[in-house]
Amino acid sequence: MWPVDRPARWVGHGRELAALRAAAEALGHGEGALVWIEGEPGIGKSSLVAEGLAAASDPGWNIGWGVADKLTERLPLRVMLDCLQVRPNSPDPRRAHAAGLLRSRRQGLFTDGDSADASIEVLVALVDELCAAAPTVIVVDDLQWADDASLIVWHQLTASVDQLPLLLIGTCQPRPRRREVQRLRAVTDRRGGQVITLEPLAEADVAGLVTAMLGSPPGDALRRLTARAAGNPLYLCELIDALVRERALEIDPTAAEACLITEQMPASLAAALTERLSWVSGESAEMLRTAALLGGKFAVTDLAVLLRRPASQLAGGLQEAVAAGILVGSGPELAFRHPLIQQALYESMPRGLRTALHAEAARELAATGARALSIAQQLSAAKRPGEDWARKWLIETAPALATRAPQLAAELLRRELDETPADDELRDGLTASLLRVLLAAGSYEEAARRASQALTMMADPLRRAETYWVLARAQLSAGSNDDAITTMRQALASADLPRQWQARMLALLAMLERASTGDLDMADATARQALTAAREAGDAFATAHALTDLWLSQGVRRDHAAALDYIDQALHALGDDPSYEDLRSFALDGRIFTLQNLDRWPQAEMTLQQAHDYARRSGNPDRPTSVTAAVLWYWLGQWDDALAELSSFDADADALTYSGLRERGPTLLWYGVAALIAGRRDQRTTAGQQLREGLDLTIKTVSDRENQDFLVAAHALALEQSGETSQAMLRLAAILPRRDGEMTLTHQWLPDLARLAIAAGDRQMARTAAQACRAEAAAETQPARAAAASMRCHGLLESDPAPLRDAVAHYRAVGPAVELPAALEDLAVVLAERGQDEEARVILNETVILYEGLQAQWDIRRADSRLRPYGIRRGVRGPRRPRAASGWEALTPTEVKIAALVAGGESTSDIARGMFLSRRTVQTHISRILGKLGAKGRVDIVREALRRGISP
Questions:
Q1: Does residue 219 have a pLDDT over 60?
Q2: pLDDT at residue 258, as a whole number
């Protein structure tokens, strides 16, 4: 009766299926309806219709199903004739009669307007007769290819659905090009019909479809492979079928896993994918094949270079490909809608031809000054080392590639070095470039080994200096501080060391001295030598590096005002030069850190915006500032925003600081902040997982110790939640004492240590915490966070409400938001101890309200339990409704803003730019919005926002 695709092809479109079934059920009660279903090829439009009708139709109904294609577009009325089964030999006399009438007019059919109109009327009259006998369903697949006469029949029938038991269902690709089809869609809207848009399947639905096909859920490798189908059920099914045929799956009851992934795409899948090219002209199809050489995403300017045509001449073909759903916009670039389509087009070219085209593309793109990454990708695919131009280009662009694609750059440089003779004049340059990118890629062992070998052969002073630099950094990043210091001193002893490199070596040495010995005076003396040499050499990098050394020393001394001055000088020295983006990122992070210590929170937020802006302008918008942002949002009480930032950061990757130096500090902070938020929200399973992974990291360096404090606090919290108060106290006490040269902001955690010590009955530990906090406060040249923390410690230790009131007043005036409810909780406890019950109760109520705003359920329970022994309970104010877990009400304020911007049509990049967030953070927020709304795509966000009257 109708075509049926693979079972479960409509999985994930339950809401749309319910709407179609409702229309079919209404037909059973004599009510007509008009349904328009649109979606890309393979998305499951026919499957949805078949399933909807199979569940709700009656055997006595008249059901006709026609399928249009590119051939029927030139055959008048063919689609409607097939749909209505109009044939001279039809057993149905009504259909046979209609066929006879049409045959009698065949000589004049569509040669004049009267004959055409008469033929259309015959089919419309036939539908009237069918409806008079029984409810009637007419389905036309792929209306975008239907002939004009069939479209006219369809249009006339739309006027009858209100009077006849007629269910009219049409499917169509999105954004049809023909105006006649566009008008029919508009008619559906105007007549109150349903327009159903099928979006790609969500990840969970893809897993469900794979499970239905294989009998077991997909494993990790298979999930990654099926993600290339981009949620298209047809491509997904073809992919799974191909893997089954090639025995490339291992299936057991717990999981189905891909065990053998062949490089070549199976022919059946390739055929299904390249069929999409039939939707565009031959010229556009060839353009797309060339674009496939550039990868899944490409710049139009690069495509224009390869085609040797101006970009303006490509507009028509590219717009055609976008309209056909083959390409989509991706910020300033275009991308293949499905990675598998790009792969199919790419593999349709012989391997030898592809290699030659890649080599040619690399040369031509380089000649036009295209992006370094685009050229490097073409060189990698060409696999033809040894060309002189390519070696010179790699040496010139290695600094940029080291930042954006160090692994790719290392692959290319290794390949070139293998083909370069030992006496070639370019060898030293290639070696130095490889060392730089190995350092950036985190390949410290290889970088140190190659650098040591190169130093025995290099004669050029500049190359030797740079190689010493790389060797020291590789040793430092591998945790060998002493070896790095030795290397720096060997380099500084060289008589021919250029002044610029002397400055850089001294700046690095100052940093190492602080970390190794804790002697700030010695480190400062070395940093000032570096600063003098840098200014004499006119080296902005060395100047800024030396200034960041001095910033660090002043921060350790708690002279945050002086530290701020040094870091501002460093940023001024760097200017906007894109080659210094690593050091600039480090300096901006330092500025945010210092402003926090000065309680200048609004300025810290502004600096974070500045950091995001610099990252976007440098072409690296997802640079890892996320952990710095997350820490800031933690203290400001914006915990959902902090978690969104953390979600955009790869905790498994080493965190880049400056000039290729990698440290694990941000990774320790990642686990620490995530675990502490989860713990305070009483999400113990999540907190436990983050703690286990974070505590598995070995603390090797001073930087590791300085960045483990959140993790230590989260661990102490977990012990406290388990009733191990004494153990929690001892765990938190591990941050003391602060060692010489160590930055750790111990004052952030000392009020909690004092509270735990008092609860454990350890007055000596409470005094130790208060004394340490008092010392931190005394070191502050401008009283700020440490001073407020010291007030809390003193108030707890002496059970004195006066200093606690002062701390509360401080937090009310300048923040941070997270500290205020904790200080209020302490004040309520001390007041209760003194018998001031009424004021204690009022303060407890305010404390709980503030904790509820953070969703800090554990803190609420702790506050209640601390006041309960004094008979203090919260006043009657009615339970505050918890934030909903799903729906619009579950969205955070930031998510509401982003949803409104999505509704306004802004892209992810536009939203990131406007809100001073990274692209990855915005993507994380959008994913969470989709999850909370139960939505499948941006269209659903737009609908819900508009329904609620939300606008940007």
A1: yes
A2: 80
Reported as a pLDDT band with limits 50, 70 and 90, residue 936 is low
pLDDT mean over 543-550: 97
Q: Buried b / exposed e across 897-913, counting CB within 10 Å, b at 16+?
A: bbbbbbbeebbbeebbb
Question: CB–CB of 840/828 below 8 Å?
Answer: yes
Percent of the chain at pLDDT exceeding 70:
91
How many residues would you count in the chain? 952
CB of 299 closer than 8 Å to CB of 332: yes
Q: Are 250 and 325 in contact (CB under 8 A)?
A: no
How many angstroms separate the CA atoms of 705 and 44, rounded?
Answer: 55
Q: Cis (ω within 30 of 0) for the bond into 174?
A: no
Query: What is the full DSSP assignment across 214-274?
Result: HSS-B-HHHHHHHGGGTT-HHHHHHHHHHHHHTT-EEE-SS-EEE----SSPPHHHHHHHH
Strands 166-172, 33-38: pairing kind? parallel
pLDDT > 80? residue 758: yes
CA dist list (Å): 588 to 478, 524, 617, 657: 25, 21, 15, 11
Q: Does the pLDDT at position 660 exceed 90?
A: no
Nearest 5°: the CA angle 48, 52, 53 is 120
- 912-935: pLDDT as tens digits: 777 767 666 777 788 778 878 877
Q: Is 350 helix (H, G, I), strand (E, B) or coil?
A: coil
Integer Cα distance of 374 and 560 in angstroms: 44
Angle between helices 639-647 and 665-680 (to 10 degrees): 140
Per the rule left: phi > 0, alpha: psi between -120 and 50, beta: everything else, 178 is beta
Token pair of 844 as six digits = 């407890």
Mean pLDDT computed over 393-400: 92
Positive or negative: CA dihedral 77, 79, 81, 87:
positive
* Among 31, 90, 29, CA closest to 64: 90
The alpha-carbon radius of gyration of the chain (Å, integer) is 34
Its pTM surpasses 0.85: no
- Residue range 184-210: mean pLDDT, rounded: 87
Q: How far is CA 756 from the centre of its chain?
A: 39
How many Cβ atoms are within 10 Å of 295's Cβ, its own excluded? Answer: 17
- What is the band of 447 on the pLDDT scale with cuts at 50, 70, 90? very high
Mapped to the 3 state alphabet, what secondary structure does 34-48 carry? Answer: EEEEECCCCCCHHHH
Closest CA to 826 of 801, 851, 845, 848: 801
pLDDT digits (tens, 9 = 90+) for 78-104: 889 989 999 889 999 999 999 888 887
Strands (E), 74-231: 136-141, 166-172, 194-197
Pair of tokens at residue 23: 């229309």
CA distance 799 to 792: 10
Residue carrying structure tokens 């007055």: 763
| Nearest in space to 582 (alpha carbons), one of 527, 656, 472 | 656
User: For the packed helices 461-477 and 499-517, what is the interaxial angle rounded to 10 degrees?
Assistant: 20
Structure letter (DSSP) for residue 140:
E
Whether 155 shows a pLDDT value over 80: the answer reads yes
Encoding tokens for residue 516? 């190794």
DSSP helix/strand/coil, 807: helix
Distances (CA, A) of 871 to 457, 538, 836, 852, 874: 80, 70, 11, 22, 10
Cα torsion through 236, 241, 244, 249, rounded to 10: 0
DSSP conformation class of 329: E
Residue indicated by tokens 């050489």 = 293
Largest interatomic CA distance in the chain: 109
Mean pLDDT of the chain: 87
**Is the pLDDT confidence value at 366 over 70?**
yes
Phi, psi at residue 250, to the nearest 5°? -110, 120
- The residues facing 140 across adjacent strands are 66, 170
Q: Are 102 and 119 in contact (CB under 8 A)?
A: yes
User: Residue 89 is encoded by which pair of tokens?
Assistant: 């030999």
pLDDT-based confidence at 620, cuts 50/70/90?
Answer: low
- pLDDT of 111 above 50: no
